[in-house]
Amino acid sequence: MRFSTLLKYPADWMTGGQQRSNGVVVSSRIRLARNLCDEVFPSWAKPDQRMHALDRILPAVEALPEMERGFSKSLDSLSAIDKRVLVERHLISREQAGNANGSAVVINRSQSLSIMINEEDHLRIQAIFPGFDLEKAYDFIDRVDSSLEQELDYAFDTKYGYLTSCPSNLGTGMRASVMLHLPGLVLSHQIGKVIAAANRIGLAVRGIFGEGSEAQANLFQVSNQRTLGESERDIIERLQRVIERTIRHELAAREKLLEDNATMVRDQIGRAYANLRFAHVMTSKEALNQLSLMRLGMDCGLIPEWSDESLELLLMEIQPAHLQLLAKETLSPEQRDVVRAELLRTKLKSVPEPDMPSDSDGTWDATSPSGDETR
Known about the structure:
Blueprint: H1 3-8, E1 25-34, H2 47-62, E2 71-74, H3 80-88, H4 94-98, E3 104-107, E4 113-117, E5 123-130, H5 134-151, E6 156-157, E7 161-162, E8 174-181, H6 183-187, H7 191-200, E9 203-206, E10 219-224, H8 232-260, H9 262-278, H10 284-299, H11 311-317, H12 320-327, H13 333-347
Antiparallel strand pairs: 1-5, 1-8, 2-3, 3-4, 4-5, 6-7, 8-10, 9-10
Helix pairs in contact: 3-12, 9-10, 12-13
Keywords: Allosteric enzyme, ATP-binding, Kinase, Nucleotide-binding, Transferase
Function: Catalyzes the specific phosphorylation of arginine residues in proteins.
Protein name: Protein-arginine kinase
């Protein structure tokens, strides 16, 4: 599969909106860290050692049935923008994009499976599925991992489990994470409590692009931090319980906002709709946050459901590297803001106007005796 083909077809998780849990869960991800027992780990390996490990690993990965007609490329053969596009699609990490020497990535056609070779570890195996489906993602990646283990000798210790470059990944070597859309908790100023509660029980809460990234578009990744001393199933079950509780809190927060601050919610959703439909300059941060509010409007029934485009896909298409590929040239930040606004106007032109309740349903009426007509 060519790079252009990869870009032409969006990942399954980007178009799986109908599988989201009540508009809260966007995607579920399982990632495994693995190393070969008789090769120097990538972080300490010299260039020729990294190439030797790559030459051993790549054929085994490409031969997987799941990778039939997939995308396989060494990172040093991709441009800086191409690598950034893969980061924006969550197919490689920022760390791998910045250290391409002796590195490669193999991706299946649906982009539900990507395997990074010579990132921090020899193998970073990742599966992303739409909606709240950690069990399905784990079963899938476990089959892939078992197939690779028959061909490659993993570094494993009976006491410490799978050996990894970073001690925090020892044991299962597994990170399970769920991407959540939490505008209700953000707007009601409860998100801080949720993050603190997750941290207290050994979970990490990060932004849209994982560790070190900002939580934009009201999107948060919740994942396990401990990988040693627990089985894979135990980790998944504990994370599932927390996610289920977070979903309930988010839906309750949305309901309360609509009961207590309906005018504020409708105003923000209406402004987001207007900005996205008609603005001619739009920064990345502003676009992400406005799309989040539009998604909230659809989930709450204030904007009719729209089937022409996935909002999850738009979150990727408005990122800097995707915009520059679209324009087929390097763009300054100011130019990207103009191209981004044009793209949003085009993509969202068929979105129906918000279906807001009338003022008799509780919104402020400037023509009523209680309204201040001089404001």
